[in-house]
């Protein structure tokens, strides 16, 4: 299907997208330069783009680079790959179990870290880090020239992120489920303490925010409840608030919601903004633009018609589940300056 040369190593370049989900982007010009460099490798070079970035690179000329059809499953593709090139994508976690080389191509590290943030420090990445296409080609050539042996940094990453990916997970599951063998099962007791969530939302720079975060600290130090703080991702630009949050330490679970993201159906997304819809809903499925109706209705009466209210309630319920899954809380403390959106979302938080 891919036409791979069995006498050559197979290199996969699988970058992720840039920007935010509602305004995703990718530097097509940079990609074309990188592809031009990668064609110099004496290898089967495969390019697998994240589906969100596809429309931003539709005019890219891939030359001799192999682009798999949509029917190819990424995890199955990884099984035939000898070396993975990625950037900030989580795909390297899936590849770690193979023990094969990984190169992290971070040509825009500072810009990406500033815009989207990072969960791992560069020192935790398992493979070498390169920042230019010349360095990339040189590193790939080096790692594919001889038999690869994972170094200590790679082994640490395997132990931390994929300790059970040893090919025997199904066997352990069968022995636990059918033979009640718990020797390799980590049983976690259900938490018995009550839970409380501090519903911060888009915290401002006022004294209300300082007092609110101080109440989070006091609750955490009391130690009699599981404490969670819920804030908007935009709080990262509020340095005073961030300083207080950092001081909370690991005793508080902090959940940040990416601003302006909402789990919506295609029809709902079209209603909100037709340009953001990934596919156009049939006319018969498009609801009346409820965002405009909501704004005007609530401003006039602080209420909405029954159909609209039901639609919105389902949206908020789905958005809450997207962020928290099935988790709910015994207590909720609302930030005094919370907007209508955050208050509606909070309606689904209590047990």
UniProtKB/TrEMBL annotation:
InterPro entries: Glycerophosphate_synth, TagF_C, Teichoic_Acid_Biosynth. Its EC number is 2.7.8.12. SUPFAM superfamilies: UDP-Glycosyltransferase/glycogen phosphorylase. One of its GO terms (molecular function) is CDP-glycerol glycerophosphotransferase activity. Keywords: Transferase. The keyword Metal-binding does not apply. It holds the Pfam family Glyphos_transf. The keyword Transferase applies. GO terms for cellular component: membrane. This is CDP-Glycerol:Poly(Glycerophosphate) glycerophosphotransferase.
